[in-house]
Write a structure and sequence with these properties.
four-stranded mixed β-sheet, globular, alpha+beta
Length: about 100
C-alpha cells in the first residue's frame, strides 16, 4: 500500500464513509484491480502516483494499459475516479468520493 493510498484510507475512515474494498479485482479474466472500490455502487478510485517522476503509469505503454483498464471498467458499468497525490493531500479526492457515493 502506497503512502497516498494509506492517507486516503485514513481520510475515508475519518468521515465515516462506507468502507471500500482494497485492491478489488473487478474483471473475471484479467488481473486488473482497483485501489479502492465500492462494488454495490460500482464506484472505483485509482490513485495515480508518480505522475511527475516518469513512472510506469506516466510513460506511453503504461498510460495505454491504464486507458484500456479504465475503458473496460466503464464498459462494465463502473464509474472510475482517477486522482493524483495533490487531490488526496488537499482533500479534494475525499469530497469527490463522498459526492459520488451519494449519487448512486
Amino acid at each position: 500500500m502506497s503512502a497516498l493510498e494509506s492517507a486516503l484510507a485514513l481520510q475515508i475512515r475519518g468521515v465515516n464513509l462506507p468502507a471500500p474494498e482494497r485492491e478489488f479485482r473487478f474483471h473475471p479474466v484479467r488481473k486488473w484491480r482497483f485501489d479502492f472500490a465500492w462494488p454495490a455502487q460500482m464506484l472505483a478510485v485509482e490513485i495515480e502516483g508518480g505522475v511527475f517522476v516518469t513512472g510506469r503509469h506516466s510513460r506511453g505503454l503504461g498510460m495505454l494499459a491504464d486507458m484500456e483498464k479504465s475503458a473496460t471498467a466503464m464498459m462494465m458499468g463502473w464509474r472510475v475516479l482517477r486522482v493524483g497525490g495533490k487531490h488526496v493531500k488537499s482533500g479534494a479526492a475525499l469530497g469527490w468520493i463522498a459526492a459520488l457515493l451519494e449519487t448512486k
